[in-house]
Amino acid sequence: MTNIKLFIFIISIFCNIITSVYFTHKTFNYILKTNTVQTNWLHLSRKSHFALLPSQKDKNEIIFLGASIIQHCEWSELFGHPGIRNRGIAGDRTQDIMSRIQETINRKPAHLFLMVFYMKH
User: What are phi and psi of 117, to 5 degrees?
Assistant: First the structure.
């Protein structure tokens, strides 16, 4: 009886290890493929923030749309133009930026600067 219990115990540990490795691997692959942990939260947060901001209906409005390079710069201070709107979201991928382009065009800005790039990981 003791040998059977030991055998079952060893098989149980082995199954737990295999299951843990399998699900950990699948979870990390999903996170790496979709980058959902950071990007989606940040994307949704900033996108909803942009939706709450009033439309200026300013003929001189200039919109900078893109990812982190756009977000992390104070464009209106850099160019000394109060009509510049920063619509950058760090971590955005091309499809994320393209999903926001129509609402940006609907604002009818005087100028739209779009920064989209491809980064191979």
Answer: -145, 165
Handedness of CA 83, 89, 94, 95 (dihedral sign): negative
Q: How many other β-carbons are positioned within 10 Å of the β-carbon of residue 88?
A: 19
Distances (CA, A) of 73 to 7, 50, 109: 62, 16, 19
State the amino acid at position 82 in one-letter form: P
Q: Do 88 and 64 form a contact (C-beta atoms < 8 A)?
A: yes
What is the fold, at CATH topology level, of the domain defined by 36-114? Rossmann fold (3.40.50)
CA separation for the pair 96, 112 (Å, rounded): 17
pLDDT digits over 60-98, tens only? 899 999 988 899 999 999 999 989 999 999 888 888 888
Predicted pLDDT of residue 62 = 92
Please provide residue 106's backbone torsions phi and psi, each rounded to the nearest 5 degrees.
Answer: -60, -25
- What residue spans define the domains of the chain? 1-34, 36-114
CA of 33: how far to CAs of 29, 40, 63, 103, 104, in Å?
6, 13, 30, 27, 27
